[in-house]
Amino acid sequence: MHIRAPAILCAARQHGETAIIARLLTADHGLVAGYVAGGRGRNLRPVVIPGNLVDVELRSRSESQLPFARLELVESRGPWLNEPLPASAIGWACALTATALPERHAYPALYEALAALLSAICHAPSARGWAGAMVAYEVLVLRELGFGGGGRPKGPELGDALAAFDALSAPLERYLLADRRGDVMAARAMLRQRLGRMAE
Fold first, then answer.
1. 59 in helix, strand or coil?
2. What is the DSSP secondary-structure string of 33-47?
3. Which CATH code is given to the segment(s) 2-76?
4. Range(s) for CATH 2.40.50.140 in the chain?
5. What are the pLDDT digits (tens) for 120-170?
6. Roughly how many angstroms between the first and final C-alpha of the chain, as a whole number?
7. Contact indicator for 136, 113 with CB cutoff of 8 Å
8. Which candidate, 60, 61, 57, places its Cα nearest to that of 69?
9. Which residues 6+ apart lie within 8 Å of 59 measured at CB?
10. Which residues partner with 46 through β-bridges?
11. pLDDT at residue 180 above 70?
12. Is 120 helix (H, G, I), strand (E, B) or coil?
């Protein structure tokens, strides 16, 4: 197997003393995992941040082997991780993607939507500019995986987006995260709490 493609890094899990297992979303190959040697080292630590856009090269000798991954940073989300609300939003969107999607199934619409959502989170003046897009992304994940979806916000206000966000909790837990919702839904709960403070 040899893949080279733009990707969104969705998760990075420690492996051994210096390596990580990266889970990356690509447009044509879906969610793929790769072994990144030295991923916890000084040079690669800024690259393996969830939400980062990267160029990835994956190589393995067989389909059953975990590929070796080489990453090059294209766009960093690091500057926004010091801000609690954008950091929570990036964390939740990436955790949902990494947890819910099956590996090596292409979802080009989800790739494009996640890239647009992350860009909105980082560049909109406030959460009012991207809260509706977060709801739309969750709905799209449900639909792409065959679970229908949910309602979009009924209006442009943050309160409308929050009402739709709350309504999606049950289908996300039931259909996508039933056997692994603890840590993942905790990230969503933190995001909801921070969004709620804005609406007060």
1. strand
2. EEEETTTTSTTTTTT
3. 2.40.50.140
4. 2-76
5. 999 999 999 999 999 999 999 999 999 987 777 888 789 999 999 999 999
6. 51
7. yes
8. 57
9. 1, 2, 67, 68
10. none
11. no
12. helix
Nearest to 96 by CA among 8, 177, 178, 12: 177
The mean of the pLDDT values for the chain is 93
Identify whether the C-beta of residue 9 lies closer than 8 Å to the C-beta of residue 26: no
- In this predicted structure, what is the pLDDT of residue 182? 59
Query: Please, are residues 52 and 75 in contact by the beta-carbon 8 Å criterion?
Result: yes
| Integer Cα distance of 59 and 43 in angstroms | 21
Query: Could you give the percent of the chain with pLDDT greater than 70?
Result: 98
User: How would you label 146-178 residue by residue, b for 16+ Cβ within 10 Å and e otherwise?
Assistant: eeebbeebeeeebebbbebbeebbebbeeebbe
| Both structure tokens of 88 | 């929570």
- As to burial, measured by CB atoms within 10 angstroms (0-12 exposed, 13-18 middle, 19+ buried), residue 45 is middle
Q: Which residue has the tokens 């190589």?
A: 59
pLDDT of residue 157: 87
pLDDT for position 179? 73
